[in-house]
Amino acid sequence: MPASPESIRNTVEAYIKSVATGTADDILALYADGATVEDPVGTPVRTTRESIREFYQVIEPLEQEAELVTLRIAANTAAFHFRLITKMGDQTLEIAPIDVMEFDDDGKIVSMRAVWSQEDMITG
Amino acid sequence: MPASPESIRNTVEAYIKSVATGTADDILALYADGATVEDPVGTPVRTTRESIREFYQVIEPLEQEAELVTLRIAANTAAFHFRLITKMGDQTLEIAPIDVMEFDDDGKIVSMRAVWSQEDMITG
């Protein structure tokens, strides 16, 4: 049976929370084996757990807040707009991508593609 | 050369305007030959111009307003949240999907996948 919308929503909410305040391993636990990550779209696709862990380890030490803005779910796919604010001393860096994820029957992420560009970054 | 972000933005804005107030042929003109439409994700993919025209002809006679809420662009891909309000007598029906589109080098749409479900519909 395909993942329910509730299961997909739970994974998305856990993902956003983990990106902001969790560890790389917390995030990895939401991904299925064999999952792929393309962030942003147009950059090389990460196809191994090691390369996906490496991607999230970069942001693990940062002080971040995240917020889900809009989530849409259809079949095994979610698209969501979320806001990630990184604090760096007195400054903040805000990125608010639209991520597109596909899920397996257990509600684990099998692919993630993030749609955003440098122009969407806001420094404050 | 891949389509520029400006070219992609222009196509998305023309798409939203055409969906609200244009004809099916206005919308078709934004699609490349061989384009595919999956709306919502999980339903059969439309792969012919006839089946894509048929899809948009259903909404052509409706009185609609549309508004772009959020647009993100990366490489040849756009993801955007937009609001489509249909007036039916005294009632309104609002759908606000997140659409994911890929574009060819001329900025024409090669694939459209709309992420939304019945639960996202708002009647007023």
Automatic annotation (TrEMBL), chains A, B:
GO terms for molecular function: isomerase activity. Pfam families: SnoaL_2. InterPro entries: NTF2-like_dom_sf, SnoaL-like. The keyword Isomerase applies. Keywords: Isomerase. Residues 12-112 form the SnoaL-like domain. This is Steroid delta-isomerase. The lineage of its organism: Bacteria, Bacillati, Actinomycetota, Actinomycetes, Mycobacteriales.
